[in-house]
Amino acid sequence: MFHEIMSCDKRNIVGNMIFKVYEEYKTKDCSGKSLSNSCYEYVTDIVNHEKKTTLYLPVENGNKDVVEVILEKCGRNDNMRMRLSLLIAAIMIHNQEILKMIIKKNSTWIHSMDKHDMFPPHYAASIGYLEGVDLLLGLCKCCTIQRDKYGYFPIHLASYGGHVKVVKKLLQYCPDPTKMLDTSHERNILHIAAKHGKYEVVCYILESEIPQHHKLINLKDKNGDTTLHLAARSLHPTIVYYLVNQNNKKVDLDLVNKNNETTLDIVSSHYELDKSSLR
Ligand SMILES: [Zn+2]
Fold first, then answer.
1. Where are ANK repeat segments found (predicted)?
2. What structural domains and CATH numbers belong to the chain?
């Protein structure tokens, strides 16, 4: 029902009534929690069969009047989940107009965090939403060095997703990418792009005019793996070929990881494994 109201009620007459009903619930439940707040939490969490929350729909439909009412409620109740749902919905569907509306309401909301400790710039970077990243970083450049729960900066997620333009943008705020490592594997953006087969990101970094970026090619992660080890182990032949042939002056083929393996050892073990499976 909530979903239908939020997606169909263009003038927001019923939506407004629902909010009024919530307001009436001034009483508290047996645990002392305000019923009004419980209703707001319910309406922000409930998802339809497409896994969309009720707040996602007015943003998706560009229903600015409903968004305006919700923004008013967020302000009064300081409901973090509600404002984060709105921000994320605007980001996920690249709705610049509503994103601006939300930020204008309160620019500090860009520091709302979800249960994975992801900030809005993490979301925008992970889906390659360049204008969104630009808008958010225009308000706070420090967000580029915010880690999520798994130790990733927004630039790591952009690299993982293969979003070259966002990687390029975020590199402007990152003077030394050799020091931008995730905390789980101690990998840089080139490691991540190579491991996940993001050929264009790998090419962009290694063809950059900034020599500092080229140094990433021989750096090792926590296990001693280089970009080449990771591309070979994850079976990305185009990237392996590019690293070995197009970058033969930069890449060091003799580097070993903590298991004392060169990239050739990894390729050979894959080959042996393939042969034995064919027997
Ligand atoms: Zn920030």
1. 150-172
2. 1-115 (no CATH), 132-279 (1.25.40.20)
Expressed in angstroms and rounded, the spacing between residue 56 Cα and the centre of ligand 1 is 24
Distance 108 CA to ligand 1 centre (A): 9
Tell how far the Cα of 141 is from the centroid of ligand 1, in angstroms: 6
Enclosing H/E stretch for 3? helix 2-8
Q: What is the pLDDT of residue 183?
A: 96
What is the pTM for the complete model shown? 0.82
Q: How far is the CA of 109 from the centre of ligand 1 (A)?
A: 10
The whole-angstrom separation of Cα 12 and Cα 157 is 37
In percent, how much of the chain has pLDDT > 90?
A: 55
* Torsion of the alpha carbons at 261, 158, 188 and 266, rounded to the nearest 10: 0
Q: 124 alpha carbon to ligand 1 midpoint, in Å?
A: 14
Distance of CA 42 to the CA centre of its chain: 25
Report CA(143)–ligand 1 centroid distance (Å): 4
Question: Does 205 have pLDDT greater than 90?
Answer: yes
Q: How far is the CA of 88 from the centre of ligand 1 (A)?
A: 16
Using the structure block, give the residue that is written with the tokens 């620019």: 107
Distance (Å, whole) CA 66 – CA 68: 5
Distance 89 CA to ligand 1 centre (A): 19
